[in-house]
């Protein structure tokens, strides 16, 4: 009975350890994945910034038109400022999106390099095992 318990415990421990080694990533792969994730997050933030800028520009246009209709020059000037600020925010968002895309691409390259090195290492290991 105790022999059976020991065998099942050893088997369970072995099964718990094996999958963790099977899914280990090389440092290059994990660095590439991290860069890619950061790029995706940055891209989402940039898209939000662009949308916010577009909304601000739209609001500025509405304020400017309201100022023109009512003859209020201060309101008209405020609308123009809002439009300018919105355009600037959109451009900043586009620049961030470009940077994020570059970051994502370099993450993909690093990950690919890690995969290639893993393949080469596995090939060298299999060749070394052959007599």
Explain what the structure shows.
- The chain is mainly alpha-helical and 131 residues long.
- It has one domain.
- The protein has helices at 2-22, 27-70, 73-129.
- α2 (27-70) packs antiparallel against α3 (73-129).
- The protein is elongated and about 95 Å long.
Structural class of the secondary elements? mainly alpha
Order of helical and strand elements: HHH
Shape: elongated
Number of separate domains: 1
Number of strands: 0
Most strands sheet? none
Beta fraction: under 5%
Measured as a percent range, the helix fraction is over 70%
Mean pLDDT: 83
What low-confidence regions span 5 or more consecutive residues with pLDDT below 50? none
Terminal residue distance: 44 Å
Radius of gyration: 29 Å
In DSSP terms (H or I, runs of 4 or more residues), the helix count works out at: 3
Secondary structure elements and pairings:
Elements: H1 2-22, H2 27-70, H3 73-129
Helix pairs in contact: 2-3
Summarize the structure.
By secondary structure, the chain is mainly alpha-helical. The chain has one domain (27-122). It has 3 helices and no strands.
Question: Which key terms come to mind for this protein?
Answer:
131 residues; 3 helices; mainly alpha
